Amino acid sequence: MQAVTMLARAIHFASILSLAGIFVFLAVVAEPALARSAPSDAPAFRRTLRRLAWASLAAALLSGALWLMLEARSMSGRSLADVFSQDVIGVVLTRTRFGRVWELRSALALLLAGLIVAGDRLGRRRGAEMLGWATLLLGAAVAAALAWAGHAGATQGGEGEIQVVSDALHLLAAGAWLGALVPLALLFARAIGDWAWLGVAREATRRFSVLGIASVGTLLVTGTVNSWFLVGGVPGLLGTPYGRLLLLKLALFAAMVAVAAVNRQRLTLQLHEGVAPTEALRRLRRNALIETALGLAIIMVVGALGTEPPGAHLAPDWPLPFRLDLDAFPPSPAQGREAILHGVGIAAGLAALLLAALRRRHRWLIGGVGLALVVGFGRVPLAWMLEDAYPTTFYRSPVPYDATSIVAGSLHYADQCSQCHGVDGHGDGPAARDLPVRPADLTAPHLFAHREGDLFWWISVGRNNGAMPGFSDVLGERERWEIVDFIRARGAGAQPNILLPLVTPGPAPAAPDFAFEQAGRQETLHAATETEPVLLVLYSLPGSLARLNALDAARDGLERAGLRLVAVPVDPEAPTRSRTAAPLPDFAVSTGPETAAAYTLFEGPGGCPCEFLVDRAGLLRARWKADSAIGLAPPEELQAQLERLARLPLARRASHIHSH
User: Fold this and answer.
1) How far is CA 192 from CA 277, 523, 614, in A?
2) Which of 22, 47, 137, 356 has its CA 20 to 30 A from that of 200?
């Protein structure tokens, strides 16, 4: 049934765009051209276009009804017979967004039918021009309303509003260009061999050329906006079915633009210069039909796109053995001058290519020099940025990055990985000496040069020609992602210059999420940090009691400064009271044993007590340790660090590690 749904969508889109395009053509192209020189059979031409409009409207209503039935069947999971017998369609129409939009579009289509009838009766009498513009506006509304029937209409919030507006403009531009091609071809057909229509054809061609340029520009801008939201980037474009269909659509669109460019740059000039106008008209009509065929192919692709989830919502299967890492340019500060030299050479080459495109004299020579500069100076920077890639390189972990996942990953690591990589991840496990390739040090900085999808691929499939085996047959998908979480958390905690006793704008590890209970209310760390930074205190009794009391005494001032206190016991079985039976401050929360176990990875040398400043993006921005030379931060120092934190731009929440 999916193929039938695709076909129904495609026919509906084609009919609606044709309907809108006919009235755009009449109002903007044909009528102004006919007003200059009206052939005797102009009324017959108008009747032909109105018959085409009636056919488009009928096809739109029938395909729309079929689309509704198929959507009702898909939503209910029932057969088509049950869809009719059990009033499923009524439920879809009244209780779903798709149904309400369908009702709106159907009402607009029926109103449009009424205007077409009125236009047929009015003919060219007084008021016909005003009615024509009203018909154009209503046809545009029918086309624009399709935006609420696609992926854009399903998106909530501000992004959804932007997508709907962009999609509506995209549909209007498509209707103005693609929908007007058949009427244009019909006009060319009348002008072939009929000199009375030659002047009309010339003026119509000039006007349609302007309309086409405006439509193509709008399609490019709105298509870019839509792709940004629905595809998300190059991985979604190359690695998802939606993205690959979009690439096919872009290729067909490029072919349409190429045909239109030939019409504008060559055939239109031949038509206006009077050199073999009949032959120019035949070629223009042929090319208009070719553009129409390409446009119909695009609409078939659009029909398929509507049945696929957007690429931005899927894990992309990367098809190439490499990727570009822009952060690797230049590879080291020492090569900065070399990078500048290559950048200047590339810029000069691009300037030469642009100059070659703008002028005819010595075009090939200038273009060849520009291409040589781009290739010559671009090879080295390209080599710097090329990184190995795998099918899962751009996967994002479906497992929440939290204390539970990290602790579970540590257990899987101990069972499956520690024999080679070592208990502490330095690549010095007992089995390492017998391997032809030394296992990687999983605490070294190079760990963060690899995406989490790379790590997942190696854990799943193996690497180094079997020196490291794959574990997909031993560990489930969730278990492999949990190992990734553990490896990256431990690696972040092992970096010497990331967690310092002061806030810096440098890289910051993500704080593992965890659930806790405070004053009988359940909460999570990430939910708490959405509104304000948190000072996360790892404590043990009785040694941390004085620190907890000192923070409690300064609590009012810290909270006024915008800092929340959350204290987590290193030993969850520890009592909630001190030996003197005095209760702990109420910011000492209850949580599971995995919380302290996960944050132990970020403590560094030594042990508790340890405190972390977590910003509103859920990133660990600073760390203080009681056994360090600086010690734990006094309240006034905490307020000073909050001020430093406030001056940093708020980062987006990251799954593992973020750098500005």
Assistant:
1) 8, 76, 75
2) 137
Q: What is the secondary structure of 501-517 as a DSSP string? A: SS--SS-EEBPPB-EEE
What are 201-250's pLDDT values in tens digits? 999 999 999 999 999 999 999 999 988 888 988 999 999 999 999 999 99
Which candidate, 589, 568, 460, 446, places its Cα nearest to that of 517? 589
Instruction: Dump pLDDT digits (tens) for 43-58.
Output: 889 899 999 999 999 9
- DSSP strand pairing (521-524 vs 515-518): antiparallel
**Contact assessment for residue 537 and residue 565, using Cβ atoms and an 8 Å cutoff:** yes
Q: Which residues contact 547 (CB under 8 A, 6 or more apart)?
A: 537, 539, 609, 626, 632
The residues, any chain, with a CB within 8 Å of residue 598's CB and separated by 6 or more, are 402, 403, 406, 407, 489, 512, 514
DSSP type of residue 132 = H
Query: Cα 314 to chain center, whole Å?
Result: 10
Tokens representing 535 are: 């000072």
pLDDT at 157 (0 to 100): 66
Q: Where are the alpha helices (DSSP H) in 25-96?
A: 31-36, 42-76, 80-85, 88-95
**Closest to 75 in 3D by CA, of 50, 93, 60:** 93
**Whole-prediction pTM value?**
0.80
In this structure, what token pair is assigned to residue 252? 């067909």
Interval 454-458 mean pLDDT: 95
The strands making up 590-591's β-sheet, listed across from edge to edge, are: 521-524, 515-518, 590-591
Decide if 8 contacts 301 (C-beta within 8 A): no
DSSP string, 264-289: IIIIHHHHHHTSSHHHHHHHHHHHHH
- Residue partners of 284: CB distance under 8 A and separation at least 6: 188, 205, 263, 267, 268, 271
**Phi, psi dihedrals of residue 543, rounded to the nearest 5°:** -65, -30
CA end-to-end distance (rounded Å), the chain: 48
